[in-house]
Inverse folding.
DNA sequence: GTCTATAGCTTGATAGAC
DNA sequence: GTCTATCAAGCTATAGAC
């Protein structure tokens, strides 16, 4: 087998949280036995979560942060980034790793990864907002506000099983973020 | 002993999530042994979470929903509700039960409680927004938006250990919600 | 590189003394 | 009403056959 597809593991963590995700669940999701996971991830569960976070980081850099830095028009850049976000969260049906991995005692292990991810995301949204005509300070405010709205929409969508909340927030992003 | 103070249990759930909260942690937090918890909560862990949710519901009805329905000015009502919210979330340092209890397989057990809580909260914010001059439809949009911003701010605050994000969102609520 | 088997521990929950 | 003692089941992780 080549390199392992991490998305089933990601799904387990996102649905169950770090504590709730057992190696049995993960093993079943990837189609291996528990012990075999230790061949791929000698560091155990923690290493699996770190691998998933690295995977998510790569996805965001390519599909969200990258487009936001391109040389197209701010509106076109944002539309591409929104597509990347929509796909990652499956229209609001999948939780955010940032959210679920910041719970409990193990959260401290992942805080550095998560902080960097949030910073890169916020910076990229700041750039596109500023390029659309806002001042640097205002652009930063709007970018932070956008991140908050996305994360909040994910929580509310999940709690109420109403993913249209998330879709609506994503659709309104251009109006909020661009001048 | 009279009736048990539920806030230590609430804190454990909010910090660890439902799966991450073990009876050992809860017992230590309340100062009892594991077995003694079953005298207060024969239904075990699930009953503890339900009791905490009922407690939270009562707090919100008294300190958030109630003030929003009073006969004072919309601005004064909202200020009181914001105080209730700020205290409940300890300036953003405590997570939201709505968030942490909607993770994993046990989430289905709590969905009815959580949905009702969110609905009552959103309705109350809709009332105060409408009373300030907005149309019913617009008021509802703004109320939903406010809930999203609060929940998002809690997630971002927790992830980045920056509780000022939460404080800023709460402070901006009157401008967002009232006409 | 995947498996079976198992060690050692913690979990949620129960029984029964006081 | 709280405790000690205990249970079966689940957990993470390891050892070693193939």
């Amino acid at each position: 087998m080549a390199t392992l597809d991490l998305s089933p593991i990601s799904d387990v963590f996102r649905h169950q949280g770090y504590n709730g995700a057992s190696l049995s669940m993960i093993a079943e999701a990837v189609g291996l036995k528990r012990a075999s996971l230790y061949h791929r991830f000698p560091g155990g569960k923690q290493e699996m979560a770190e691998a998933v976070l690295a995977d998510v980081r790569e996805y965001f850099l390519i599909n969200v942060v990258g487009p936001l830095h391109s040389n197209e028009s701010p509106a076109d850049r944002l539309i591409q980034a929104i597509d990347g976000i929509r796909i990652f969260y499956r229209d609001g049906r999948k939780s955010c790793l940032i959210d679920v991995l910041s719970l409990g005692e193990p959260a401290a292990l992942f805080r550095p990864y998560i902080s960097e991810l949030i910073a890169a995301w916020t910076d990229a949204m700041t750039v596109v907002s500023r390029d659309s005509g806002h001042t640097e300070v205002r652009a930063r405010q709007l970018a932070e506000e956008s991140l908050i709205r996305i994360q909040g929409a994910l929580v509310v969508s999940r709690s109420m099983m109403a993913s249209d909340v998330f879709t609506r927030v994503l659709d309104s992003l251009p109006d909020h973020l661009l001048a």
Observations:
- Residues 1, 32-33, 35-36, 39-40 of chain A lie near DNA strand C (CB under 10 Å from a C1').
- The domain at 49-177 of chain A is CATH 1.10.357.10 (Tetracycline Repressor; domain 2).
- The interface with chain B takes residues 15-20, 95-96, 98-100, 102-105, 111, 114-115, 118, 144-145, 147-156, 158-161, 165, 169 of chain A (CB under 8 Å).
- Residues 44-68 of chain A form the longest helix (25 residues).
